[in-house]
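Thread: "does anyone have the structure for this chain?"

Original post by V.I.:
We have the sequence but no experimental structure in hand. Need at least a predicted one for the grant figures.
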Amino acid sequence: MTNDLGFTCSCCGEYHAELPMGFSTMAPDVWSESFAGDSASMLATEQCIIKNEHFFLRGTIKIPVIDNDHAFSWGVWVSLSRDNFARSLDVWETPGREAEPPYFGWLTTELAPYSPSTTNLKTHVHTRSLGQRPFIELEPTDHPLAVEQRTGITMDRVREIAEAVLHPNSGNA
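Reply from O.Q.:
Generated one for you, tokens below.
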């Protein structure tokens, strides 16, 4: 997801024609390619199971951008209990599934621009209408990611995040 605002990167000095308004990960941080051949494990676009013991859904953390009409988004993974994961699969293709109560989950995506770690932050997973990934709501703590989700960020912060993600060894956050 991008917008029409370019920026000159403070890390590489290059002009980037578009500022990313979101980043996503392809798997939970605990996934390893060694699980790929295991019949008790699977990684799909929206769900993941490891050893029939750990269950994950992909969702979106939306962060309002206070000086722009678009939100910033993080595509993340959360772990769910076996029962909540099974329930989410039961209603996966069901119209009206957004009426489901939220599921408790643990964030299983490390978002490098944040300190302390984002891994294992408590979340509420809100099922949305068919075709939309769940909305991930962080518990209202003083963690910087949770604060940003509640209060919003500026376009300058979006640029900082983009630089930190695009240049992970630069030390920017």
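V.I.: this helps a lot. Residues 25 and 75 are 6 Å apart (CA to CA).
O.Q.: and Residues 155-166 form the longest helix (12 residues).
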